Amino acid sequence: MHSAQDEARNRKLIVDLRSDTVTRPSTAMRAAMAAAEVGDDVYSEDPTVNKLQDRAAELFGREAALFVPSGCMGNLLAIMGWTQRSNEVLCEQRAHVNLYELASMSAIAGVMPRAVPAPDGILTWELIEPVIREKIYYDSQTALVTLENTHNMHGGTVYPTSVAEEICERAHAMRLRVHLDGARIFNAAVALGKSVADITRKFDSVMFCLSKGLGAPVGSMLAGPREFIKQAHINRKMLGGGMRQAGVLAAAGLIALEESPKGLKRDHENAQLLALNLSAIRGIKIDPKRVFTNIVIFDVRETGRTAAEICDELGANNILCLSTDKYSVRMVTHCDVDRAGIDRAVAATADVLAQRAPDVAN
Q1: 57-73 burial by CB neighbour count: b if 16+ within 10 A, else e?
Q2: In what order do the strands lie in the sheet with 295-299?
Q3: Torsion angles phi and psi, residue 180, rounded to 5
């Protein structure tokens, strides 16, 4: 049998770059969780949850916020709050709400995505305006625009604030709502050198995750107008998200909000180093200048192997990562991967690819 020490030692040998969702709560988070004052949150009596919600609303300059189990639920609650059944929701083609939320907007909210491809995942009003439905009674009506910042599947790209604000302004002029899937909005804020309030102020609602780069074990937040959050609270319960003594989780979320953003710059620097060193490996294509935050996606077509094959071989060498399509590998930096881990990941990748380098002459 393996001891706890053996398991801890084995974890240290693994460099887990699959996602920033794999982070483990810090010592401060664990202490806060153990000491958390709790109550029944279904009755709105958990003081730590209430404190977290108030603090999130304050940071984003919103009237209210709601603690939810996951980002997927937060996005779905926003869609339910801003739409009616048979409406359309505009989103970027590779947006998380379109690809990775089990079509919940259709299955549960009764609306359809209108997916629009955009360079680097960054929608502009010029791309959005032509696909807004005309006001014809037999057409599904456009009700909501959703943006994703940072954009996961385009390598952590960041919306210029002016672009996002123009979309909000023009959408509002057409009586459309705009929701932000800001799962990694703190990464965007660090990259832009601005506060989260400054870069999200014109959105009708914002969802952000506590459990990605911020390192909390569980949970996301949905922020917006008070009446909107009241309805989201009701719908959260309907979806099975009513939690009881959830203060043990909210306590970690409070630490995440106050302390974790300070470490995101280091994660971005590690991603830059990772991209730069990977770009020197034969068969890998990536432009380090296009890595803006903590997500590194690189092309392996010229290696003669698929992304899945390379990920499997790296996994056998204790480097964990994921394929995003047949020839693309994604690596995500976070607080549990240090500079030494980046170096090991690069060395392992070079070794794996050197074992069977492609014949360039062919």
Answers
A1: bebbebebbbbbbbbbb
A2: 295-299, 328-332, 322-325
A3: -110, 120
Q: Which residues contact 171 (CB under 8 A, 6 or more apart)?
A: 128, 145, 177, 178
* One-letter amino acid for residue 292 of the chain: F
Which residues lie closer than 8 Å to 179 by C-beta, 6 or more apart? 75, 78, 79, 82, 144, 145, 146, 147, 203, 204, 205, 206, 207
Separation of alpha carbons 312 and 353, rounded Å: 12
Q: Does domain 27-258 have CATH number 3.40.640.10?
A: yes
Residue 233 CA to residue 68 CA, distance in Å, equals 9
pLDDT in tens, the chain (362 residues): 445 555 555 566 899 999 999 999 999 999 999 999 999 999 999 999 999 999 999 999 999 999 999 999 999 999 999 999 999 999 999 999 999 999 999 999 999 999 999 999 999 999 999 999 999 999 999 999 999 999 999 999 999 999 999 999 999 999 999 999 999 999 999 999 999 999 999 999 999 999 999 999 999 999 999 999 999 999 999 999 999 999 999 999 999 999 999 999 999 999 999 999 999 999 999 999 999 999 999 999 999 999 999 999 999 999 999 999 999 999 999 999 999 999 999 999 999 999 865 554 34
Query: Start-end ranges of CATH 3.90.1150.10 in the chain?
Result: 4-22+263-354
Cα separation, 293 vs 267, in Å, equals: 8
CATH assignment, 4-22+263-354? 3.90.1150.10
CA distance 253 to 9: 27
Residues of the chain with CATH 3.40.640.10: 27-258
Backbone angles phi, psi at 325, to 5 degrees: -160, -170
Q: How far apart are CA 210 and CA 203, in angstroms?
A: 19
